Description:
Number of helices: 14
Order of helices and strands: HHHHHHHHHHHHHH
Distance between the termini: 86 Å
Helix content: over 70%
Amino acid sequence: MSPQRPEVGDLFRRFRDRLADDRPPHHDRRQQVTSPPPQRSTAHTGRRAGRRRGGRGGEELRVPEAEFTSYYGRPILKGPVWKWDIAAYLFTGGLAAGSSLLAAGGQLTGRPALRRAGRVTALAAVSASAVFLVKDLGRPARFHHMLRVAKPTSPMSMGTWILTAYGPAAGVAAIAEAAGVLPRHGLLGLAGRALPSVGHTAGLLAAGAAPALATYTGVLLADTAVPSWHEAYPELPVIFAGSALASGAAVGLLAAPPAQAGPARRMAVAGAALELYGAHRVETRLGLLSEPYRLGRPGLLLRAGRLLTAAGVAGALLGRRSRTVGALSGVALLAASVATRFGIFYGGVASARDPRYTVVPQRERVEARRTTGGTST
């Protein structure tokens, strides 16, 4: 026979006795009861805080503020993939635009040295811009593909069409400067006689497209999610317009004799005023997002741009009768334009790499909306 199994009641009594043996003494049990309860989760305290806002008193419980950190220290934003060639593209585009405006001024005021220098420089600069742009796109066909659609809300699309309209006009205007070296008879003589009037029209068309060419790159940068570019959307077109005028004036100061450089000197003053005003604004108005423009390589470049701009304008105004001083002033203004464009470019890249420039302004905007909403209610 098999051994007799214990009854269910016996098993329950043994289990109860075992629990009684493992239970702490009476005073220990009281100490456990009177000890403070364990800390509740932040989600639970958050729900209690939400219920108590409309209740009858009680301390409001809040979830602690999160710090601006990211996984493994990686940037929150995907930084721009653009390299130095896009910064160079920003400069050459502005130089082309300023040179066309200089050439139009020389054309309308009867200063052939200014006209010639502006037209030739404009063609060389826009050609360099095309090289830098194609290098960034990877294949020339991509530029052609962007012409399939004209999208007014896209700065890149509009910039493609601006370059398409400006480039041929600047090229024809520059080619027209060769009319004087063509033979006077035959087919080439006929072309030589027609080129001046054609170049006159093309030069004015290029000058008409120049303001859009000079400023659309500023709109393009501000249209990105890069914090220090996006927040500086009012100033970037102003800076780029001033830089374009200053670089165009530099061409006139370098190439034209002092007697014909009057329009170039006036362009230098106007461009320097716009450039210095805009650069001062981006370094002071944006709060935390102005910091990338003041520190490191961007800060060094922008400070150098300010000094070179001031030196170039001073030389242009004080050395009106000296060809050497005018040429040195032109070199200073060209260097200032390069430094300013690269400083703006690298400042935006630096702001995209640090998560602080993304998180802190967003938190401030949320807090401002919350405060405004609470005040209005």
